[in-house]
Amino acid sequence: MPNIFRKITRSFVSILNSIAILLIGLAYLSVYVSPEHIGFVSLIGFGFPILWLINLFFVIFWILRKRKRAIFSLLAIVITWSLWWAMFPISIGSDINSKNLNSPLQVMSFNVRMFDKYVWTGDKETPRKIYDFIKDQNPDVLCIQEFYINNKNPQYSENNILSRFKQFKYKHLEYNIQTQSGKKYGLATFSKYPITNQKPLPFENTTNFSIQTDIEVNGQTIRVFNNHLESIRLQRKNYNFIDSIEFKSDRERRDGAYDIFKKLNKAFTQRAVQAQIIGRHIQNSPYPAIVCGDFNDTPVSYVYRKARGKLKDSFIESGSGIGGTYNGNLPPFRIDFIFHDTKFKSYNYNREKKDLSDHYPISTLLELSPKI
Q1: C-beta of residue 129 within 8 angstroms of C-beta of residue 356
Q2: CA distances from 43 to 23, 31, 46, 272, 370 (A)
Q3: Which H or E element spans position 187?
Q4: Residues 63 and 124 in one domain
Q5: Which CA distances in Å does 182 have to 153, 172, 188, 226?
Q6: What are the pLDDT digits (tens) for 243-301?
Q7: Which helix (H) or strand (E) holds 104?
Q8: DSSP characters for 224-256?
């Protein structure tokens, strides 16, 4: 009887191991297959860190039991190591003083959530804190997503908000929504260096979009892409469902989960198309590119691969740890990025854990002309 029990247990564990290998394989596939064709694999990609750790557990489990089966999970985590590294890089000795660089450029990206227009943070001083934070950080180039203007509200009037960014001599503002009541929603790229050209990059059937800005830095022209890709657009009822799921009936859980899945799948598909468009613009750029923004997707995704292309990820180059940039009810995924041309070098990547928005600001110090 004990032998039968052990065999059943071993078979059950083997089945679980096989499922774990299959799922991490699908997560790996999500990076290469567009959600337009197979939507559910993108959702599995969100669970990649957990799946990777589960397979690591099985490697240790089978090794301790001297079973050759360990090789299957070992191969799975080796093959997907590059994805793990994209999420949890280890950086040593990347901090540097900008004075020691030949051509430094401090770049910041920040989704400011409309400067906390609806007081989501519970602190009416948040707009001022956002302005003060940016002033203290004093980047050379600043990319803002969810830039908001309301000319009928003195606190959010264009004159008042732009007066908060006086350290930047040049600006590129684009609004995808403008109402008759004087409200404007869009993207903003500020620069201490001259802007020589600019234009919006709209997407179809959405209010999300991107902008490109050509900036001349010490005789060298760079093209900065500021992006806000498709949001999941969860509503209050979806967040309430997540917060109280343990108190729901089976039917309520099923209906609530299905509603969230539909929104996730739609957003995955739209972002895939948007990332393809941005990727083509980056490839066709006559100037070296810097790509910033809120991509609403993780490094284990088709969107990340298409948008990044052959560029370097500043977090991988000079960051470390988890690096999550989302500050909300969902897991703290890294969904905001700063990519840059391979000829540039990144130092001092930083994610500031400031409760000023549902995103954390990120920044990096780029060397535009590295000494050979």
Answers
A1: yes
A2: 11, 11, 5, 13, 39
A3: strand 183-191
A4: no
A5: 9, 19, 17, 24
A6: 455 545 566 566 556 666 677 778 889 999 999 999 999 999 999 999 999 999 999 99
A7: strand 104-111
A8: EEEEEPPP----HHHHHHHHTGGGS-HHHHHHH
In this predicted structure, which of 14-23, 189-198, 231-240 has the lowest mean pLDDT? 231-240
The radius of gyration of the chain from alpha carbons, rounded to an integer in Å, stands at 23
Q: Does residue 159 sit within a domain?
A: yes
CA 145 to chain centre: 12
Q: What is the distance between the alpha carbons of residues 41 and 306, in angstroms, rounded to a whole number?
A: 16
Range of the domain at 227: 98-367
DSSP-derived secondary structure letter, 311: P
- DSSP letter at 355 equals T
Of 57, 87, 117, at which residue does a domain stop?
Answer: 87
Chain CA centroid to CA 343, Å: 22
Name the average pLDDT for the chain: 90
The pLDDT value given to residue 241: 45
Find the helix packing angle between 2-29 and 70-79, rounded to 10°.
20
Give, for 72, the enclosing helix (H) or strand (E): helix 70-79
| CA separation for the pair 274, 201 (Å, rounded) | 10
Cα–Cα distance for residue pair 258/218, rounded to 1 Å:
53
The tokens describing 308, both together, are: 């990044």
Does 80 lie in the same domain as 103?
Answer: no
Helix %, strand %, coil % for the chain, to 5? 40, 25, 35
Are the C-beta atoms of 295 and 307 separated by less than 8 Å? yes
